[in-house]
Amino acid sequence: MKYAISLILLFTALSCSNNPADPEYNSEFLPLREGNWWKYKGSLDMTVNVESVVKINGEFYYLIVRSFPESSDTLRLRYKFNDRLMIWFEDKEYLYIDFSLPEGSKWNSFYNFYGEIRAKGLNSTVPAGIFSNVTEVLFENTLISDVYEFNRYAPGVGMISSSGFRRNFSLVQAQVNGNIYP
Question: 93-129 as b/e, with b when 16 or more CB fall inside 10 Å?
């Protein structure tokens, strides 16, 4: 009996320590957890859902599904360290965003994109609320001049707005780590 209880406790401890739903790293600027979702309205309506966790090359990635009126796409994201968000794209991992970098910092990202921390400590108002300490990130394509976006991320919430060539949208509702916005 003692042996059976010891095995149950050992398997429970092992499964908890490798639980992908409770990652070692995360960020307040884009909190990733299964069940989180965001709804955006504007020239482009979009819903973003953290659907599940998948294992790729020994690492756990959150499967993010972005749904648009007539299509959808999927991102695979994980935090390598707190605030250092990685993306799995075409069988390779790239830095997506490093929220810990100072203003003006740039990095190469995936598919001919680079990112830049444009501003920190901003105040932003969107239909879902008024947010402070917002970080703005620019993504720009090195090959196509009109492929860019300015994304704003609020602590504890995630992306609250995005604007780019001929499109923009703002957060209208979200559920993040059990909190509902607005």
Answer: bbbbbbbebeeeeeeebbeebebbbbeeeeebebbbe
